[in-house]
Amino acid sequence: MSQDFWDRHQWISTTLTQRMQILSLKYAPASQQMDPMLLFTSMVAQTTVIHLYETMKSMTPATADNRDIMMEYQRRSLGAAEEMVTLTKTLVQLSSSIHANPVIVMC
Fold first, then answer.
1. Alpha-carbon span 73 to 66, nearest angstrom
2. What's the predicted TM-score (pTM) here?
């Protein structure tokens, strides 16, 4: 792989991490769980974390030189997968509460 590819990959990862931190500072976790757009944004961010790891894993042979970075991406990916489970449960609960309230559905 070219150095340009890895530079862009690292840039995406860094930018994503920064944006996720900004999101969590700007919006309390409780408000993120009640707002469908914030919930969607969080889900997309977590999916991207997983995709970054999968891209790295498929493009890079595991070597002693890159073991630490691969383990870091794997750790972040596992955390993102766990967060996706939580977000999915929240989405199901949010969806159920919207459909259970006929006033909201009629609006």
1. 11
2. 0.80
